[in-house]
Q: What sequence folds into this?
């Protein structure tokens, strides 16, 4: 492994949430965090989108903010490739087209924010936004259950797809206001901290997609968003040649995680999938505001 690159990148940063300070525990612990984080990146792309932010926190413990963000973006793009191939027939293309304007606005605002805000401010802003969105999502679901508008048995099927009508967005999730708010927040948070996964997960949960439609729409959404972020990240100096060797050594772990996630998604019922995504979103948000 590229130990000199990692040793030069280790920084004495405070621990994030429950994670240890990798700068004081040495290169072995740092590599362990990076490898586990890379596995989680792959897993997030094909099974559990909420774990991306946990991987972001792990990388932030080992690398300086700029290098961490650049490495994560390249690994996320790597994980996007098997994900979009796996779920190439399951994405809601109409929803993706409708989200584009709001996401572009969010990415531009995020690029501007990156030039002015500190790392601590970025984490706290995103963390509190996620907490607010979790409360709103739970409230919407509670109202829907009380009114008897829960998803029918077909919509709860893990094998349903947008093409047969069961994977299309619910009325609440497809409203223009919801698309603008969630799309802009997803673009903003993914630009400033590679943390758009929880925001998008909450939105697609509100849309009540079945498992494969959820994962397919998420996969294509972030592949397109990450491609959009790439030139901004290069221009801001977040991605530069010195990080490429580290990225190359972590790519196999991303691919292993993506394969494991694909096998997991095939066996995960809807009644298990939704609560797991919600719990992972909460877990991802808490370290950001700590």
A:
């Amino acid at each position: 492994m590229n130990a000199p690159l990692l040793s030069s990148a280790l920084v004495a940063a405070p621990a994030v949430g429950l994670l240890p300070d990798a700068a004081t525990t040495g290169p072995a612990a740092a590599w362990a965090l990076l490898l586990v984080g890379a596995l989680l990146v792959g897993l997030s792309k094909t099974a559990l989108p909420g774990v991306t932010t946990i991987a972001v926190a792990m990388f932030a413990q080992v690398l300086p903010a700029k290098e961490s963000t650049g490495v994560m973006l390249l690994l996320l793009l790597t994980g996007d490739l098997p994900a979009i191939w796996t779920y190439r027939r399951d994405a809601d293309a109409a929803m993706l087209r409708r989200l584009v304007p709001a996401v572009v606005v969010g990415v531009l605002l995020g690029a501007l924010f990156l030039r002015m805000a500190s790392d601590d401010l970025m984490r706290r802003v995103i963390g509190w936004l996620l907490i607010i969105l979790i409360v709103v999502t739970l409230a919407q679901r509670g109202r829907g259950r009380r009114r008897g508008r829960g998803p029918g048995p077909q919509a709860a099927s893990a094998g349903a797809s947008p093409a047969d009508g069961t994977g299309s967005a619910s009325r609440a999730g497809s409203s223009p206001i919801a698309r603008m708010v969630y799309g802009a927040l997803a673009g903003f948070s993914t630009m400033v901290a590679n943390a758009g996964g929880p925001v998008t997960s909450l939105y697609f949960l509100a849309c009540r997609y079945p498992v494969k439609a959820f994962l397919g729409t998420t996969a294509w959404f972030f592949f397109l968003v990450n491609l959009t972020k790439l030139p901004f990240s290069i221009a801001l100096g977040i991605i530069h040649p010195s990080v490429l060797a580290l990225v190359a050594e972590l790519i196999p772990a991303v691919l292993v995680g993506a394969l494991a996630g694909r096998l997991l998604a095939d066996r995960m019922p809807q009644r298990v999938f939704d609560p797991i995504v919600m719990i992972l979103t909460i877990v991802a948000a808490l370290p950001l505001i700590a």
